[in-house]
Amino acid sequence: MFRPQIKVIDCTIRDGGLMNDSKFSMKTVKAVYRSICEAGVDVVEIGYRNSKKMFSPEKYGLWRFCDDDKLFQVIDGVETDTKLAIMMDAHKSEVDDLKPKDKSPVDIVRVATYVKDIDKAIKIANDAVEKGYEATINIMAISHAIEWELDEALQQIEEETKILACYIVDSFGALYSEDIDFYYEKYRKFIKAKEIGVHCHNNQQLAFANTIQGIIRGVNYLDGTLYGVGRGAGNCPLELLISFLKNPKFDIRPLLVAIGDEILPLQKELSWGYHVPYMISGILNLHPEEAINLIKKNKDSNENNFKEFYERCIDLI
User: Fold this and answer.
1) Most buried residue, 134, 258, 273, 301, by most Cβ within 10 Å?
2) pLDDT in tens, 102-113
3) pTM to 2 decimals?
4) Structural domain boundaries in the chain
5) Paired strand residues for 169
6) Domain 7-268 is in which class?
């Protein structure tokens, strides 16, 4: 579907970093960055700008903090129109973590938040805009949001910010196409002067389908990752999304090279993609943490207690 106003955002290193504490090598990050730029993708999100007061640099890798000097190393020698983004969690970041835009290679600050933390998110987003960046607000765990609280948050975002887009984030991979319809209509009821985005997880193998449904409804900011890499079941595969959009500015070939050279080898140490425990957490609208722990335990013990896991998850509802 060709629609020139659509913007595609690659989240490979940022979202994939949730699997390995953001400990990707500089070589891998540079290779992924270059491939995304060569493919003509609009935005590449390298990682988080989390506070070092809350996260230890001794435990977490470079891309949990995305220091500007490291980002300058990543982009060195690459001439591109692709914009560089970082993510700041509203509850894990502080405005002091962000320098003025003229001292940073970052173009876009994406603020991730739960509805309960919307005031913090707005503060960080507005600070970013005042410092010269573009910004988005990504509302996580949307399937757990209390409706009236979500309404109030969307109204605040519309009235109190100058962000580019507000995101529907299916953190638990629980949504179906009709849910995308519901949230798009709700967002559009309040969000008038900004775009709407979608970030879908693949617990029920619906991340690509739900992203397409968002496009059909009018969503113009679309997230994906190479080979669907990401914590748990992963995300909408970027290469599928690029192929679907039929925009001649995109070239899938650099993405295919990066998948073969950089992403597939990661499967030796990282595990993502469809798995029964992730499916269970998705259909029950639960955080994937329990499923991740079970898969790790089963890998160590070679057991597959899916029925027991399902019944235990039922008890958590």
Assistant:
1) 258
2) 999 999 999 999
3) 0.96
4) 7-268, 276-316
5) 199
6) alpha beta
